[in-house]
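Quality-control log, excerpt.
Job 1 of 2 completed; input and output follow.
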Amino acid sequence: MTSIKSSKAEEKHSAIKQEKESHKSAEVSEEAAEKEQEWAEKNPTYFKGSDNPKRFIVGDDYKEELARLQKMEKYRGKYAELYQRKISEAKTKNEKKQHLRIMQFNVLADGLSGLYQNSKMKDKAFVCVPEEALEFSYRGFRIVEEIMRQEPDVVTMEEVDQFE
């Protein structure tokens, strides 16, 4: 019985993922987001609670936070669009095999960003980078923005020292 439910949940999730991919725009339809949220709540790996860092992230959650960041006086005029990234595809002989999107990301540890260096160490800081861009409260959501934009199946990260 459990395997049947699990199988149906996987099928539903697969159908939702296919629907998302079929949209030409980067926006996910409200209906697809609702279906995805329904699936997430039934999935045994879903963690409830908005303050839980492991919770399932719905597409609009991060968009709301990015919109808030863009409007903040502190970042006005400094919020730039993300660069377009070139994605490398591994060539395969068997086209019938499933595909897996893997993203590797060096997120620059907050402690290594140079924001917290004393004045004697300023020569080791990043050159021509606004301090606001190095703050994790800003960078963290930009990292999430890039991950959500690429829609990888697996994300690996280096230099992670922020866990919430």
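Job 2 of 2 completed; input and output follow.
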Amino acid sequence: MNKLLLTCFLALLCLVGRYLVAQSKVVRSPGAELLHRSDSPNREGPILPDIFLKETYGAEISSLPINSSGPWTVDGGPKYETASLRSSAPATAGTRSDDNLHRSSEIRNPKSEIVLPTSGFSLVDNSTSQGQEETPSAQMRERSIIDSLTIGDQIPSGIEFNSILNHEGNLIRLDDYRGKYLMLVFWSPTCSGSIGALPRIDQLTQKYTDQLEVVPITVFPEERVAEVLKIYPSFQKLSLPIATDASYLRALFPHFRIPHVVLVDPEGKIKAITGAEDVTEKNLDMLFSSGTGNFRTKVDRKILLNPNEKLISENTHLENKNIWLQSAFTGYIPDVGGSLIQNYEGFSHIRITNMTPIYMFQLAYSERDLVDYYGVNRIETRGFEKDELTSDKSGADALAWMEEGNHVFGYELIAPPSYDPYQLMREDLRRYFPHIEVTVETQSRKVLALIRQEGRDFPPSAGKPRSYQSSPMGVRMTNYPLQGFVYHLNAAFWRASPTPIINLTGIDYPVDLQLDAPLANYEKLRLELQKNGLDLIEREEEIKILVLKKIAPFKPLAL
């Protein structure tokens, strides 16, 4: 049976994910050839494809999203069917999803009901009669059902957290905040939007310490949050207590996109459910002066697409349509996350939803090349207006930007094995976007060159089974090509960097390598590479650049 791994980009992840096994009736699933999960077309630069490719050595090379939780394990060789990947579920474009990030024995209920966990979060019934042996831990072992909450609802009494960071005590009770406004910020340490929002909210709310308390809440366990946050200096100054291991509270406040903000008034009633983009000084001043704020209500809707289904042609009436060749183009599809999935074994299948043209051109011209991968730092745009191809908007603002109808699109290609899918895709894109001229230029650019230290030998792998394990805090690779690791750095951990990493080691054979350092931290990564006979130096090199030039006004097909 052919295998298929589905990540769920960003968020995107903000993600963690699942390993799916399926078989297609018409187009055979390719296994773990390529997967992509895009958080958003506008989160800190382009979100780049996260690809699983078969390199010429025969192993699977995994490119994992920077905003995934890790660690990730990919086993090479004949036992690849045991591979596991942790990443996120799909998010609505514009923000990161933290759905399914926390592994547990949670029983999900389709009616937004909550099953209390065994650690981290508790809902204590304060009405327990005196002398009754009902402790929070005993109560949490029972199944309690509570409906989800919305604006105007009263927060249940007894909600507390006992897995906390950045707090003197070992317990946080929401009841203790009565008398002040309380802001609950659902976030993820693997989400760039969250990481940027929390320090900003912390600094902003310092002005209102007598009127407002802020509690960030994440589904990640305490040790995982502490590990990841070491990477971000901005969190060193964070004054907010962080509630961790709190996935079950999301049943009270269901959401898909993060940051997700719930504002509670001094009486414990929900005042607003909004996004971090509406947590502004203007809105807070209005809230505390008049009791009302201009907070837009955040409504999360998400349609999950099966990676085996065709976007356009799938239906229940014709089980086998026997499609040989198909190309389709769509506009923005509401409630569907930005995503890209490729399958190659037998027929080729490329499916893209709600992504900007820049990503489509990136895929069509990068093809499956691990060396000339056109990340954001190897794409040059000319003649486009601000926010035309990408945007730094988030949350509701990002959704409004996409709903304008001329920024994000969908694309699907089904082609037989005798056709080059990337050549077909390039031809399609010329028809769909005739206002964009695409060329590949060789330019002198500043790069980070991975080199072998002078006089140092780098022996080939000892021939053990191939594997690749990676997280934001390091990598372990056995019998694996070094170029696959360089590709992974560019596509995931350094995707927002203005400087691409290129491999100038001359090592073209599988190697064994272990690096215990934050992969997104240049200084620490370089020190770890130096211990292994390698180095990462800044220099000028001639590299290929993908150039997108606007040569005419854009006239959408359907507008």
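Post-run check on job 2. Residues 3-96+304-550 form one domain.
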